[in-house]
Amino acid sequence: MLRPFMPGKFPFVPVTDVAGEVVEVGPGVQNFKAGDKVVSMLSFRNGGGLAEYAVANKTLTVKRPPEVSASESSTLPIAGLTALQAITEGAGLKLEKSSTDKQTNVLITAASGGVGHFAVQLAKLGNIHVTATCGARNIELVKSLGADEVIDYKTPEGAALKSPSGRKYDAVIHCATSIPWSTFEPNLSENGKVIDMTPGPRAFLTSFTKKLTFSKKMLVPLFVASKSGNLEYMLGLVRDGKIKVVIDSKFPLAKAEEAWAKIMDGHATGKIIVTSE
What we know:
With 277 residues, the protein is α/β, with parallel strands linked by helices. The chain has nine helices and eleven strands. Helix 2 crosses helix 8. The protein is globular and about 55 Å long. The relative contact order is 0.14.
């Protein structure tokens, strides 16, 4: 879809999120040594993750706590950081509870997916009431992650994004696709905003129009900004048991094509892992 801009050339080895063991460090690298267990985010343009060996940038690599498995940590660079950035920077919400703060109402779409299941758990660290959408088979899972109310997106109420308790949303963490602004707008509070994880041309146009007309209700396209500090923070939450990683399935590297096909099907619950073991 992005040719001729990406990838730069074929053959191309995809995947950016990796966890493993350092086998060699380049000149000037002082914070890592051979044998360190690490998690890293590779560049979008170069990829390289679906392989036995990968070259990682030291600035986007952090040491993995022994309490967090390689599989768990490999899920965090894109999905975990996107969820974190959407809630803290996009929506401007706090991830700690305070008796003096007014409760915030948040809707999370596609809440059983890779980004969504992290977003639900992160939101519940703060004084936030979470309404979530997902398929019927995942409703109990999303409830177990902390969501206050969960709606099946295939029902009329779910398609309309209506809160069962009649709440208006101060923020929407939008992890799904193909939902128009006209569906979000009547469900937003006076200053509500939609944080769009997968913005297309229509989303950018809506965002520009809302700014141009000084609308209080906003659509905010989001692109993840990779920061090693955020990755360390997410690893710490997993280590301390404050959030958990939901793994849909694991595939050996020899069956990476099957893993890719399952991802493209769009109905994974949590994350899909490819292992080199």
